Amino acid sequence: MTPEQNATLEVALDTRRYAIHIGPGLSGAASAYAGAIHGRRVLVVTNETIAPLFRARVEAALSSAYEVDTLILPDGEATKTLATLDVICTRLLEGGYGRDACLVALGGGVIGDLVGFAAAVYQRGIDFIQVPTTLLAQVDSSVGGKTGVNHPLGKNMIGAFHQPRRVLADLDTLDTLPAREFSAGMAEVIKYGLIRDAAFFDWLETHMDAIMAREAGPLTELIRRSCANKADVVVADEREAGERALLNLGHTFGHALEAELGYGAWLHGEAVAAGMCMAADTSARLGWLSSDQVARIERLLAAAGLPIAPPDTLSGTRILALMRRDKKVSAGALRLVLLSDIGQAVLESDCDDALHATLQRYLAD
């Protein structure tokens, strides 16, 4: 374990602060949890894919100081429902867990969102720790306190803001991550370069081969810089009143694509990647991006193994209708996160003509 493989940064909010630790072996280190758990009882929540790989090491690390139990859920986006939230809360109630209990979310974004939401609502709020096991969760969903579940009429429409006590990004968990999942995480990484950090975008272009080979040093730096960007935005705008909305680049398109394809047909990061290309196209139609800049964006996403367009068989009319259900709709106007430059995002509502042209380019009808 070398210094460049380890990093720590802090999310300092108005009412509280918590640490993000990055490095190999963290999920199985008792010291990594020290100081973040104030009661005696811990419920680890994970899924059927992750449990055989990492459950034992997490339980061993925690059991020396706490009473530990584990709940194993089915894997996949289809699990992210109110019904599964009820399963978690029922387990807590039947087990007699009090307000000093702590949940540990051991898994990807679905587990993190579910467990965080359960922690937010159980007895009006208990502590939880994020142990994200996918790249997407390590660089995005585990940081910032957004929790929730999907509804048949929209993604992430039911949820709460609830910050974790700590985030442990264990590089070891990325060793077993399928290539498609790793690529999906890269969409959120590239997003940070696009919306607020042009130097990071340049760095990604230079280091993509080492990143895709999962070299520990570049991975730690990638996660650190991604989390630092996310943390800066969250600290400035914890409840998405302003700048935090810019983190949704590609997501209004992407959420609509996910819903139309059926949750799970495409991974979230894949839909966001295609959505960012569509947002770049709309930005270019407004005269904000050059064709060369759009090509750079597409090349970097493709180098990360991501789609740069949605399936052209989807209905543009249906996608637009789904986009209009987005949480960023205000006073009936659809607000899109677009790019005025690489490294500079804006929230724009006066773009209907450009948006329709983009939908006509990529989609049917």
Low-confidence stretches: none
In the CATH hierarchy, what is the class of the largest domain? Mainly Alpha
Total count of helical runs of at least 4 residues: 13
The rounded Rg comes to 20 Å
What does the main sheet amount to?
7 strands, mixed
**What is the structural class?**
alpha/beta
Strand portion: 15-25%
- Overall strand count: 11
How is the largest sheet built, in terms of strand order?
Answer: 1-2-9-6-5-3-4
Distance between the termini: 54 Å
Overall number of domains: 2
Quaternary status: single chain
Shape: globular
The average pLDDT score comes to 94
What is the correct CATH architecture of the largest domain?
Up-down Bundle
Helix proportion: 40-55%
Order of helices and strands: EEHEHEHEHEHEEEHHHHHHHEEH
- Looking at CATH, which topology of the largest domain would you report? Dehydroquinate synthase-like, alpha domain
Topology diagram in text:
Blueprint: E1 7-12, E2 17-23, H1 30-33, E3 41-47, H2 51-63, E4 67-73, H3 82-94, E5 102-107, H4 109-121, E6 127-132, H5 135-141, E7 146-151, E8 154-161, E9 166-170, H6 179-196, H7 198-212, H8 216-236, H9 251-261, H10 268-285, H11 291-303, H12 316-323, E10 336-341, E11 344-348, H13 352-362
Parallel strand pairs: 2-9, 3-4, 3-5, 5-6, 6-9
Antiparallel strand pairs: 1-2, 7-8, 10-11
